[in-house]
Structures are given as structure tokens and as C-alpha cells.
Design a protein that fits this description.
Strand content: 15-25%
Structural class: alpha+beta
Oligomer: single chain
Order of helices and strands: HEEEHH
Largest sheet: 3 strands, antiparallel
Helix content: 25-40%
Number of helices: 3
Length: 137
Amino acid sequence: MKQVFHKIMSLAMAFVVLFSTMSFTIDMHYCGDTLVETAIFHKAIGCGMEMELPSTEGCSITKKNCCDDKQLAIEGQDELQLQVDKITFEQQVFIASFVHTYINLFEGLDNNVSSYEEYKPPLVVRQIFKIDETYLI
């Protein structure tokens, strides 16, 4: 049991390190005020309604494009916090509850317990199916 616990904890810590140091971008394509497409790790394709840039020769009025692309970049950490004494109380509570949950997750029941085996069935006073019968003549 102890070996399973250590493997789970090392795997969990590996995921924490991986996701806390990973950087990624989220591309969003808006058509007007409506979010049409969201893409992670690549550029959003769009809705196909983008306007081509008109030539401005001899024209003083230009029409604004209704589509808009936005990009949200989420930066990961460059340095890891390796000191345990700087962990807040809330983080300690989370770690303790996480460990307790996963220890109890892999403990199974010794046998299948069914609560209805100890009870006797009710006595039949009347035959209810005969009371509710209807006969077609």
C-alpha cells in the first residue's frame, strides 16, 4: 500500500510541476460581440466573414471589419518554489485532503455488504393483484 501511495504522490507532483511551468496561448475569434471560435496551441480559423483590405486610392471612407481576433497568453513559472516552509495554510489543507482522498480511493471493501439480507420479507395479508384485476365480459 505504501508503494502505491508513493507512486501516486510522485505522479501527482509531476503533473503539478508540468502544469505550473507550462506556457500556452488561447486564440479567440469574435464576430461582432459574439465569440465564434476558441483555439488552444494554434491560431483560430475564424468564421470566414473577414473583409479584405480595400484600396484607399481616391476614397476617404473605409468600412470597419466586424470580425476581431484576440489572443490570451498564459505564462508559466520559470522557477519552482522548492521550499516547503513558504506554503500557506490553505495549500497545506489542500495537500492533506488530496493525500487523504487518494489513500482511501484504493482501499476496497472486504466483502460485498448488502443490507437487505438480514430482513425478512413482509407477510402477505391479501392478494393485491386479485383485488386490482378487471375482467372484460
